[in-house]
Specification:
By secondary structure, the chain is an alpha/beta fold. The protein has 14 helices and 24 strands. The strands form six sheets. A four-stranded mixed beta sheet has the order 22-23-1-24. The chain has a four-stranded mixed beta sheet with strand order 2-15-17-16. A hairpin with a 5-residue loop joins strand 12 and strand 13. Helix 6 runs parallel beside helix 7, helix 8 packs parallel to helix 10 and helix 10 packs parallel to helix 12.
């Protein structure tokens, strides 16, 4: 099993290319299932979850031609005209919660689907009941049996019917599933309480290129007018805002001067505001974000919430920055109940963090000390990398397969910025 060995204490300098967003690439690969024509996706990140999704749709009978290359050059041509098996088996999706995104497109195009209940991170419950509720409102008949969601249209129906869907909570994958399904439904669908993360407008723009009629994407109310069929298109996956934020925090923590190519400030305004308040210089430039930092910054309190608030996916990375900043910060996690699992590992590195329920109190220390630590989930692993970059001595991070699920060659990119980091067996 691979590990990361980091010798801390180096400032980061230079420029780094931000890869395509995993959380946009996965639903967009599923959107390819909505048409029998070829779809070309570019800027596809090289990640384990993306590989799993490609394997999943191949297993359905979809023709996939993947052009290998750097993350920015990663292109895949998907032709679902040959799809024969509208099913997502447990064996292929047990490590990836995004598998539920296949349900809406398969049901909308073929009238039936069998999709395993998803697996994925251990950071808290991610119920699929909202997905079932929304698709049922569009007329689907769905039962859960033996770990599978089995969906079909009522007898005599040829298409889903448009509906007004108001979820009990803001759900990103739910919004994406309903958005895709509604494109081929009969009549109008209105999504209330829709998620607004940048990956959703990016998916909507791809669907519009395919011939969908969508208004309001990027707001909490999305209107979709169903069409009979969709066509192929070419689409570039939007840059990953969480990778962008992770590198911003890494530079802020270690010091230095870095240009993040393709990073977009407007997708990370809550994080950028906190970084500026902490004392980092973050500037929007023509092709990305320029970040500079020097010396210890000021610890910042924050509360995670739905977009456009502070993202839960950036909580652990910013906590790593807070752990070596001046002062004390209160971090409140409101999205996932198990998202402080990185804290015990950071304490092993010398961080001073106390947890009380949903609140972590972080008292900044002057320095961290290298140690052997273990990644518990995707973003926790990124926070340990940041902590290792500033710690004195050697830090060895175990179970970095979590990191590989969401970051495209992170150690290679950091090494290009001057970090002393290597992957070891």
């Amino acid at each position: 099993m691979d590990k990361l060995l980091i010798r801390g204490g180096r400032q980061l300098q230079g420029e780094v290319y931000i890869s395509g967003a995993k959380n946009a690439a996965l639903p967009e690969l599923c959107a390819c299932l909505l048409t029998a024509e070829p779809v070309i996706l570019s800027n596809l990140p090289r990640l384990q979850d993306v590989n799993t999704m490609l394997k999943l749709i191949r297993n359905m009978g979809v023709d996939v031609q993947h052009q290998a290359g750097a993350g920015r050059d990663g292109r895949v041509t998907v032709n679902a005209g040959s799809l024969t098996t509208p099913e997502a088996p447990y064996e292929l999706v047990k490590t990836m919660r995004a598998s539920v995104l296949a349900l809406g497109p398969l049901l909308a195009r073929f009238g039936h689907a069998r999709v395993s209940l998803p697996g994925g991170c251990a950071i808290g419950s991610r119920p699929v009941d909202q997905h079932i509720k929304g698709l049922t409102a569009m007329g689907a008949e769905i039962v859960v049996e033996h770990g599978y969601m089995i969906a079909k249209l009522p007898q005599g129906w040829t298409r889903l019917k448009g509906a007004r869907i108001a979820t009990d909570m803001v759900t990103v994958t739910g919004t994406e599933n309903f958005l895709m399904a509604a494109c081929l439904a009969e009549g109008e669908t209105i999504l209330e309480n829709a998620a607004q993360e940048p990956e959703i407008p990016d998916l909507a723009e791809m669907l519009i290129k395919m011939g969908a009629k969508i208004e309001g994407h990027g707001t909490s109310r999305i209107r979709i007018q169903g069409v009979e069929k969709l066509k192929g298109c070419e689409h570039q996956v939007v840059a990953d805002r969480i990778e962008t934020g992770t590198f911003l925090c890494a530079v802020a923590a270690t010091g230095g001067d870095v240009l993040l190519r393709h990073g977009r400030v407007e997708h990370l305004e809550a994080v950028v505001e906190k970084l500026r308040e902490a004392g980092a210089t973050v500037t929007e430039v023509a092709d990305g974000i320029h970040v500079q930092s020097q010396g210890r910054l000021k610890a910042q309190s924050f509360r995670t919430t739905e977009y456009p608030g502070f993202p839960t996916d950036m909580q652990a990375q910013f906590m790593a920055l807070n752990s070596i900043s001046h002062g004390t910060a209160k971090v409140t996690e409101t999205i996932f109940e198990n998202r402080f699992m990185h804290v015990n590992e950071m304490v092993r590195l010398g961080a001073n963090i106390q947890i009380d329920g949903k609140v972590a109190l972080v008292e900044g220390v002057e320095k961290l000390s290298g140690a052997t630590v273990m990644a518990t989930d995707l973003r926790a692993s990124a926070s340990l990398v940041i902590a290792g970059l500033v710690a004195e001595g050697e830090t060895l991070i175990d179970r970095i397969y979590h990191l590989d699920r969401g970051y495209d060659q992170m150690e290679t990119k950091l090494r290009g910025l001057g970090a002393d980091i290597e992957r070891v067996k």
